[in-house]
Amino acid sequence: MTYNSCKVLLVQDSFHSIKAITKSLNTNDFDVLTCSDNQALVLGIRENPDIIIMDILFKDKNGFKLLLDLKNHWCTRHIPVVIATQINTQQYWDESFRLGASAYMLIDRHMPYLAPKIKKIIQHEKTHVHAGN
Q: What one-character-per-residue DSSP string does 39-73 give?
């Protein structure tokens, strides 16, 4: 797999966030699927993306609960999750990593680093899996 064929599931309910993230990733030719929080688990199972990028705040669902659901389901637990949000508190960072997030990035501040971070995470996952861990 090359990085430019990386399938990304983007879970966001903010148009601004969707636009910022897809702009950052489209320049690097990622295959980005977008969905709402209510569709995330089903699409994660059906599409088997290489990585999931999600917010932590949603109108209909608690983002921490969604992260926990993704990390507890046997079909999605192996998929790395990057939190991309506008919330910058230590409590949210800590809870995200405790529940299994691979990275935490701030929209509007860290978007230039999103594509390289995704590449690094996916490469690490590929190496980790091939090492038999």
A: GHHHHHHHH--SEEEE-SB-SSSBHHHHHHHHHHS
